[in-house]
Write a structure and sequence with these properties.
By secondary structure, the protein is mostly helical. It has one domain. Helices cover 69% and strands 0% of the residues. It has 3 helices and no strands. Helix 1 packs across helix 2. The protein is globular and about 40 Å long. It starts with 5 loop residues before the first helix and ends in a 10-residue tail after the last helix.
């Protein structure tokens, strides 16, 4: 699988940390009283929501829209999401 390669796992961890930091910075800019808590709560809620939808949700238009939004957010913040999928 994708995460069986240590280099990919490490790169994903770096991207996840950068994305999380950017999300906290955005929440702070938007005036959230507890930006770290808000991001963690939102992340937990989104994860639970997508998990309850099941694996086929990855083929839905809503999922594609959400991942496109996340990719744009990452690109706008200079976060490298090129995870070498070859």
């Amino acid at each position: 699988g994708f995460l069986s390669r240590p280099d990919r796992k490490a790169k994903l961890a770096v991207a996840a940390a950068a994305f999380g930091a950017a999300a906290v910075a955005e929440a702070r800019t938007e005036g959230q009283d507890d930006p770290e808590g808000w991001v963690q709560g939102h992340r937990d809620a989104m994860r639970a929501d997508w998990e309850t939808r099941g694996k086929w949700s990855a083929f839905s238009a809503e999922y594609r829209d959400w991942t496109a939004y996340c990719a744009k957010f990452a690109k706008d913040r200079g976060i490298d999401l090129d995870l070498d999928l070859d």
